[in-house]
Amino acid sequence: xxxxxxxxxxxILYLWQMEDYLRAFPEHAEATPELxxxxxxMHREGIMDGGHLxxxxxxxxxxxxxxxxxxxxxxxxxxxxxxxxxxxxxLKAKTDNPxxxxxxxxxxxxxxxxxxxxxxxxxxxxxxxxxxxxTQVLQFLSxxxxxxxxxxx
Length: 153
Fold this sequence. Notes:
The protein is mainly α. The chain contains 6 helices and no strands.
C-alpha cells in the first residue's frame, strides 16, 4: 500500500480505488491480507455501499488543514488555487455534493479521470489542463506535508 508518509495524495487516491474495487468485487476481499484488512474496516465503518474510510477522511482532513495554512502564508499557492477555482466550481456543481471542499474536488477530478483512463475513454484537452493544475496543487501539498512531517519529533 502507498504510504501516507511517501505521498499523501496518492495514498488517498489509492484508498478510494481500493474501496471501489472491494465494492465491485467483494469476492476478492480475501485475495491479500491488505484487501482483507481494508474490507474489514469498510464493514466496521459501514461504508460498503458508499463513502470513504476514516483513513482516507483523516488524511484529507490533514491536507485541508495544510491547505488553509498555505492559503494564508504562500502567495504562489493561493494564486494556483485562484486559477483553479472556476473549474473546481463547475465540477462541484455537477456532483451530488456541490459543497465539497476545493481539495476534495481536486481529488474527485483526478479520480474520475483515472476511471476514464481505465475505461479507455477520452479526456478533453480542457479537462487535461485542469487535471494538470490540480495535480500540481496536490503535488505541492504532498511535498509540503512530507517536509513538515519530517521536522516533527
